[in-house]
Amino acid sequence: MTHRASHPNLLVLPAVAWLVVFMLIPCLMVLFYAFLTRGIYGGVDYIFTFENLARVFDPLYAKIFLTSARIAGLATLLAILIAYPAAYAICLAPKKWQPVLLFFAVLPFWSNYLIRTYAWIVLLNREGLVNNLLKSLGYTGEPLSLLYSEGAVITGLVYNYLPFVILAIYSSLSRLNPELLEASRDLGANALTTFWRVTLRLTMPGIAAGGVFIFVLSIGNFVTPAVLGGGRFQMIGNVVYDQFLTANDWPFGAALGMALIVIMIVLLLLQARLTAHFAGERREANDGA
Amino acid sequence: MERDVKTRWPGRLILLALFSFLYLPIAVLVLLSFNDSGLPTSWSGFSTRWYRSLMGNQDILHAAWNTLVVALFATLIATVLGTLLALGMETRARRSNGLEALVFSPMVIPDIVLAVALLTFLSRLNATMGLHTIILSHVIFDLAFVCSVVRARLKTFDFSIVEASRDLGASPFQTFWRITFPVLLPAIVAGALLAFTLSVDEFIIAFFTAGAGRSSITLPMQIYSMIRFGITPEINALATIVMAVSAGALVLSQWLNRENRSQ
């Protein structure tokens, strides 16, 4: 394609150089640090070891990984359960309203993450809005301590990442071929069967994309557990933070960070496989219709 | 998808519930910022006193200035590099998966990992940390967003006009300034606005690359240290201003990019 730009590689060079120097090399350095020994006075000693990686599987940290995975998993499940009907409802709205509805569903996603998380402190604290509302409804017991709990963290994660999950599911739903749904009904399937066997299966790639996104960002999250968990329980992101800024054990912090990257890569690969699988199914379905 | 009357009401109720969930927490915050007592327990009259007290808070003004400097420079660098990157990626003869992964991985890497990686890298180099290190870090993820917005516009760009311009004797540089750039401009500005919003809001990477001391503290870092001490009416006012700026930038970005979306 000689008629296009004369030197595509020259054009990508500055950005690629920036990303290699300031992202790829630092990430490789962290990978390298994961195999070094912690220095006596902080810093690192260049003594090669597998100890840090072994410590990742230490029951104490394995437990934090499992807690993080549980919280991220519940947030993912809840987000999909909310996002699916929401995306479906947007799809059912008149065509000219859909971009507007979608825009307002995604708008909060672009505003400050810290502020959106902080908003839940205002709602959930002991003198907060939810407790006040309960009081005015006649509740007389002790104010509920809703804040600084696992539930508060999950709520924060769902709230913060929901817009993206809606977007992912919407883009899958809106490309659904209506003829397939008609065909299913013509063949005698009721609405529920049609939804279960046709709609849901064909929108799996959207669910997977949204789900993997919120899971990956939740399991490595630092801000939400720090703010809404009140430091009472830790997720992996908080442990990484502590290893670097308080415990000064950079090699172990690096090993934990690498574990997060491995989880991310595995999930993204799984999602790609799933998407390919369902894309094949979708093509077959469309050919059949 | 088809619509019938039966499905209209449940759909509307779902949308009502969704938008209440998304906007109620924000609305409460905005409302409280104008509450004279500043307390969430009762409404004691409309007042702008928390905004005034914000304007007298030197720490916050300093942090706001730093944020502006960081966001402007990061956006400027990312917009230039990201636009070139998008042009290069769209005009390459073959799609490179490695390049795609490199450019878009900052969107999915947990930010705490990128933050500690940058800290490790910068301290190994014994680099002095400050606003400049925050800027270079922010460019990393800003690039991905500028690039994807500009690329989307390039997908519908008719490259034959570039060819025509070259055939008529224009230099590559002239062709870029007179033909390609004006067509891409709305997408470039839209991408830049997104990058600016992201940079203004980014917390963890800035926190790890700002270095010790308060001199290069940014607004999100300031907000973080404030919310750790609980609710103060000043944060509500600050949060309202920050959200208004982000929302304004996003609306402008979408509006500039509207032709592209409808295609």
Automatic annotation (TrEMBL), chain B:
Cross-referenced Pfam families: BPD_transp_1
TM stretches of this protein: 12-34, 63-87, 99-122, 134-154, 175-197, 235-256
Subcellular location, record wording: Cell membrane
Superkingdom of this protein's organism: Bacteria
Domain called ABC transmembrane type-1: residue spans: 64-253
Predominant place of localization: membrane
Keyword entries, A-Z: Cell membrane, Membrane, Transmembrane, Transmembrane helix, Transport
PROSITE patterns for this protein: ABC_TM1 (PS50928)
Gene Ontology biological process terms from the UniProt entry: transmembrane transport
Keyword Transmembrane: yes
Any one Gene Ontology cellular component term annotated for this protein: plasma membrane
Entry keyword annotation includes Oxidoreductase: no
Membrane topology designation: Multi-pass membrane protein
PANTHER family xrefs: PUTRESCINE TRANSPORT SYSTEM PERMEASE PROTEIN POTI
Family: Belongs to the binding-protein-dependent transport system permease family. CysTW subfamily.
Stated name of the protein: Spermidine/putrescine ABC transporter permease
Organism: Metarhizobium album
